[in-house]
Structures
1.
Amino acid sequence: MLEFNDVSFAYHKGCPVLTNLSLIVQPGEYIAVAGRNGSGKTTLTRLIMSLLKPVKGKITFESVDTRNYSPADMASFVGYVFQNPSRQMFHDTVIEEAAFGPLQIGIPKVDAIKYAKEALVKVGLDGFETAYPASLSKGQKKRLALASVLSMKPRLLILDEPTSGQDQQDKNAFLALLDQLHSEGLAIMIITHDMSILAERAERTIVMCEGVKVYDGLALELFRTYPIEKWGLRKPVAVAVSHRLSNYGVPFAATIDKLVLELKEVGRSGING
Amino acid sequence: MGKIAPLTKIIFTMMVSIWAVALSSPLSLSLVVAAQLILMVIGRVEIKTYKATAFLALFAVILFVIQYVFVHDIVLALITGLKMMAMAMVFILVLATTRVQELTAALVSQCRIPYEYAFMFTSALRFVPDFLNESQTIQEAQACRGYSTKGNIFKRIINYLSIVKPLVLRAISRSETMALSMELRGFGGERCSFSSQVALGITDYAALTGMAAVTVGVLF
Amino acid sequence: MSEIVIDDLSYTYPKSVEQALEGISLTIESGSFAVLTGFNGSGKTTLCMAIAGAVPHYFGGAMAGNVTVGSLKTTESGICDIANTVGLVMQDYESQLVTLTVEEEVSFGLENRGVECSEIARLVKEALQMVGLSGKERQHTAALSGGQKQRLAIASVLATKPSILVLDDPTSALDPEGACELYELLYQLNQDHGLTIVVVEHDLSLALPYASNFILLENGRIEKKGTPAEVLQYMGIKQQYACVLPELWKLKLGLETDSLCFSDWSTSEEAANELLHCVRSKEAEKSA
């Protein structure tokens, strides 16, 4: 669906922020992008949105070079939810906010309102159509920001740090919502520092370090074999603990639930040899 | 230029303005501009200062052309352009060679300008880069929602509101935090000291005497 | 000595009908590392503001009860005097920075208090050293990274030598590495300089290795307070807080049975060691 072919980017000559990046995003994937602040994660997503143009290499969407697409053109394919939802909001009612995108990309008003309503239902904000966006809670604002891009019917959804600043309740609700959208066939790319998202949800993890893609594959494999501290990531507790116990018949586990099961199993059956 | 006290530079700014107003030959005005250029070189200002100066020069040329088109007097047009250049350039020169905190300190402790006013100047400068960043982020966020700058002028102005509103909201919340922060840190109290050294030295008195002499020469 | 004493504090913001804080009574001892947690809207920020005296001095509104920090009663002291005892790093710490350069930022509070020039230079140097920003004196604030800006905000409130440091949700914009470094710094300030630390945090696993107290807020009330272990045990029992538990405690509570009990882990190292011990002894039992 989306392809980066040996893409490099620099704001100033000699200071590359992204170097020789190649990657392919397939329809319906769930990808997590991790790495330090300033490692090039946001540059990657801005390149996807055509907010930046590659200095070298080519980006294609459905085999069409995106160089001549404006960000507004890209918006009908890719929905980008910014980290701080209040920067995206400027209308007086929730429904106007959600309908803004489809209206901008030339969808007739009747349909735009219909899409907006559908999107609000999806994120659980039906009934809030006439509410003032600024009066919503933090978690609701985040979901409104999501609805405002869903109403444009994108095929890929990019979320920049969707869980930062949210409490655990809102965070889990938001992630469950993404799971639902993903199961409906939407591709998801989530930029995150939250290792539990990598361990529990992502089918694929990309790690960026100093503008270079240093890992692209399964999160389990990443945790099992790679020196992730070097890339500014943190080992989940389950990984650290199961690693220490590996000599005693405890299999590798990336999530707490799995580790608890495994340890109970070891406790029941005893250790052989 | 680092060793010259900020007060001297403030006086220098005023003097240059007086000279620029009083002088009326293209040659002497050119001299003032040239002298400032030399001071920039001596003061080892950054590249962006020269860029700002070049921009100013462009502006002066435009002024010159307009004046010439309407009045058809080439000398008068030249003088107007040079006067503008000489006066505006001195601000760039002084700002480029002085730290803002020293200027504030001099304005408050030597020129008796109330601290609140001098501080407003500093804090405004502090927020320019943040403000630009913020407006870029918002523009990008809107672009990602299909907002485009195409269309006729009215549509564009209406669309532009989409950037202004979140920007203003953010600026308000930001200024509230800032106001609280300033209050917590004792801003607006009676006593106030400055960590910058702004006292005048021998070079300053020499420079001031020189400036006074030039001024006398220019005026009489 | 009790550093912060809050006695039956209730507070309502102006133009609001709901109470933001309701009957809060809390004592934080000198030298504590206290962590405030709870869902969004539970009153964590308001409580921080009350400790720093911004509630009610800056925000207005209706306050009942007392807050005493050090020897000052916040209702009877000026906000700036309270700031000599309590340093506040706000959630939006970027906007808290008001001057152009690093050096100016730290000296700002000192200049406003009329401190001598030579003394300012010394205090600025000391504060920057404490947070690891030495050598960046002349840099522009706008050019610093997020983590550095936060350190600068800390240095600028530490310069006036408060005995309490309050931080509102400091890690939300940091990466995992930056968050760990911040907690290391706070712990160092707590241990080496005897500062009392109060920090608002959603991710308890970050604070767990360092904290001496946990305070759980819910709807403006204290739901549970005590040692981290006490509060985490309580969260483990109450279903709605299960998602807030740090991974380490999910593991502990998931494994514990009536006959099996672990100690109160605060790092995965501790957990691994104890589990290792368990598995080994089981193995020895079996071979015996």
2.
Amino acid sequence: MTDNPAKNATNPHLRCAAAEGCAESRLLMSRRAMLGVTAGLFSWAYMPRFAEAASTDPRLLVVVLRGGTDGINMVVPLGDPHYVSMRGSIAIPAASTIPLNSFFGLHPAMPKFGAMFQAKDAAVVHATCVPMRNRSHFDAQDNLESGLPGKLSANSTGWLNRLLTALPAGAPVKTHGAIEINDAPLILRGPAPVLGWSSTWFEAYENPGLRLVRSLYRARDQEMYDMLERGLEANRLAGGYNDGDISMLRKGFRGAGRLIGSPNGPRIAVLAVDGWDTHSDQGGTTGFMADVMAELDTAIDDFKTAVGAAWKDTVMVAATEFGRTVRTNGDDGTDHGVGTVALLAGGAVNGGKVFGDWPGLAPNQLYEDSDLWPTTDLRSVFKGVLRDHLGVARNLLNGPIFPDSAGATPFRNLIKSSAPAGASSAVASAPVPLRAEPAIARYRREQRA
Amino acid sequence: MALSLQAAREALIAFQRFGLGAKPGGPAQIGGGAKAAVRAEVETANIAAINDPTLPSYPKACSESQKGHAEDLRQQELAARVDKHIAAQIGFVERLVIFWANHFSMSVNKDDAIRGTMGQWERDVVRANVLGRFGRMLQGTIAHPAMIAYLDNQDSIGPNSPIGLEWGVGLNENLAREILELHTLGSDGGYTEADVTALAKIITGWSFVRSWEADGGYNGGTNQNRGRFIYRGNWHEPGPVTLMGKSYPALGQQQAELVFQDLAVHPATAEHIAFKLVRHFITDEPTPAMVNPLKQKFLQTKGNLMAVSLALLDLPEAWSAPLTKLRTPYEMTIAQYRALGARYENDNIWAFSEPLNALHQMAWEAPTPEGHADETPKWLNPDAMRLRLDIAEFHNRVCVGYYQGNVVQLADRLFNAALSKQTRDRLTGLEYPNDELVILFTSPEFQRR
């Protein structure tokens, strides 16, 4: 067992989260006033959208890239005159990138995503950030997943769970629900029931013992029996034990694809991808971050294959808690910095575009003299997908799902066509709590009643 | 020794509900006196202490955490913890330690200041007070660098303090909020947002010495106090502060200590802790009939945790309520180690952490300050029930390789007359004893508590 691939599966990005600067940077932020967005930004967004048939049964995969992804070296602003000087030793040479448009090139470690982009099934939103613009992994990941304007409490609900709660009965997303792959992320936390499925490397316990356990549960414990049967069924849908010797990440993406591609499977899946916290020896065209990107690229392609015919109804949106500093640090890496990319892939994506307003990399264009200036609130990206792909009504988007977000309007044109068939009513079908009611609070409420 | 059915059922409750699972022959050892045996464990002097001189002192854990040894310390402390769990006869006191460590939940993944000191904190603060005063555990926890780092109090500065005025910085309310919401009064416990801010002011200056402060002699840091708690008077918000209607005078560090004394014996705190104990040990749905006797004992004894723990054992429901909860993944792991008399090897900590990560309950790594959940559905769900089978099989191989014993005999020694016929009949006849062990370790007898 010592040769098991999981042996060294520590979480380097989480170890790095403790690196100096993470806590101190919050002090820095509070000392400085937020400045308004300057005029004169390069803009290429808001192109006319393609007219295509509406999706009637949309699928959504949300990928949380944990650690803070360096959007500047993933979707490289080759046309920015300051890119090469700012990035120095880790700058990606223009000639090695995959051309996206006249300004941007994709990192060469992501050829499959590049091919989807060229096939107009993938897009990028550049210079996005969660509303808090905070450089703490914990706080910014919370902010991404809670969908709240700021920190509410330790037990806020997640915006995808609030979506499930708010949608009217009968909507496919509501009926078939959502599934968390491997992680139990905050984004799905809340009162709406959520399925789970894990890709693991443990060997499957099989017959004849399995048959005996199932019969034992049926004879002695109906609840355990029901749960086990459903777990085995989910694993059958996910093809959990048949993927051979590939990484847990790729197994996760394949399982997610098979699950949400199944007629009776969930319609929303959530996955997390670790490893983006590149404080040192980040690498350039090759190296650490290139390896992480290559793995993600392969996994997205695995997902496309696994989701099968439902690809045309699918949107994957991948987002991260923040990006990296524009300048490299002294260790050939980059530190936490707010602005970064969001990736979209799927047959329903209005692909072949890099959306967003490019803020520029000149020293006087940086956020707090350090980071890519976020020109798009990440909630706008999510809201654009929910409105145009799932047909979620504006009142739900601005109210229960993303409270106090009217200023972050839904990003337009991310989806090939709007989805009227999935349109929801403007009134939430159930109360949508912003925080899970703690057990002691419920006990106290019931005692008072 | 064959016990009567009644005696065996009470032993089952002792080991499942209150303990960490029987070791072979365990029920026979406690005979017909299950409750007396659990009580005797509580009343044994120094029962919770780990006597291992190789484990680090407070100063050593604090300084070594900043010298790149945090992960080594975590692994050493974790191994000592698991060995202590395995050594206990019944394990009720160990379960209390786990309960209280989870009450003051932290994650080693946030910072090396936590990673390297959490074990020391658990030994010197939790274990030292687990049958003593709640107030001391509270004080010791809030004054520990691990908790200060976990909830960001090291940089919380009174805006009207000398340094606050000079630097233009302010409060961080994280620790204050969680002290009220999670550690003492509990949600809906009669405090307001203004009280959160008031407590945040009161604990300004409660900090710890970070590496750059020790290196450079900044902010009172020296090489001698590296990593340790420090009270920074010139960061403390001056003046008296009113909290929950009571004014606390400007006494510097002592201002907070007076507050903690009051919070530790507040009726809402007593109720909160009584509720949590009943919920953890007996039922997801505690009633006032179960909560109030513990609450009253807590108030009468000013938070004497031995008295409160014994009051838990004295509840009629403690020995009559059906075992409807499920062992947590962590408890299941330890119970399997105890049944097999073996655990992972020290250089293979992944064999401990990987299954617990897959089941979302790695020790000292709860993702939020609320700690690991006590709701049964959190653990009794489809994915987890499937994984428990695979993981039970994995632990068997980790602990014993290929089992040579007789599984029916082992089951008889673990459960005595409380072993059901349905389970017993299925423990024999398979080609591999390891497969029979999986049936034993996933049986309702072993899983329910």
3.
Amino acid sequence: MPAPQEQKTIEQIRRSRNRALGLSLAAFVVLVFFISIVKMG
Amino acid sequence: MTPTNSIPAANAAPADWRDLIALTKPRVMSLVIFTGLCGLLAAPESIHPVLGFTAILCIAMGAGGAAALNQWWEADIDAGMKRTAKRPLPQGRLDRTTARDFAGILCAASVFLMGFAISWLAAAILAISIVYYAVIYTIWLKPRTPQNIVIGGGAGAFPPLIGWIAATGHISTMPVVLFAIIFFWTPPHFWALALFVKTEYAKVGIPMMPVVAGERSTRRQILAYAVLLLPLSALPWWLPGKEHAGAIYGVSALALSTVFLALSIRVGLRTRSGDDDAMKPEKQLFAYSVLYLFALFAALVVDRYIPL
């Protein structure tokens, strides 16, 4: 069982990583949308 | 050679996204992105900005994935060298499985996105460049032969070729010449570095040219490649037809390559004064070689849009 301080650090890292992953996926969806628009045009 | 576990075990904390970014070797990637972008912009046919952005993104993701595979494979070697010991894997900030999976996802995503959005020819060349760097160079050549960087240099030469194919849809003479310029630029660039970190390469058993053939031979070979680079860099000026580069590129290439040759002569004909030698000419050549490639490719793009 990690110490409370260590647990807090783990939570922070996990949260920032999840945010980065979420932003990357959102950017990917937007990119695919624009690619589709260009390909259809 | 296979990955072993002589590096510290990764801590229990999940991987920080900054460590994942560090795995992609962002500084090396900047040169890859730049040369890829120049290949795309210098092509005689234009590409829609969204598709152009996507092509460069794919080149960056592919290069990042290949760099991450390189770090995953070489974590033990990196741990033994001062220059690379602070990377996430040798420091134990990241576990190997995460690094391998991240690299695999980046490589696969880059190839499929390139194929889906741009062309399957560009995607195939991108896939070849990833395999070339991660397997042929990192796993096969680097630990076996002092010519590793000569043949492996091809891996870094692919981006302008891919950028050009993304814009035009086919391979022609000019992108092959651009490939050749980076191919012949790589040995003097890398051996200049290898000369001043020679002891580190020797310590981890990597047969870099200065370790195996000695400094004298390496210096002479740096000079030979710099001599070859001078006419080769000016070759786009003499190409016929639509691919012909103009005077802005031609004069820039000759001026930049002449300075490159002058610095290489200084390194090539030099005899080290002893172990306390600061290796200033070698460090200058290494620093200039990076600037050289940036400036040469920038001149190609400027020339394309401001023809004289």
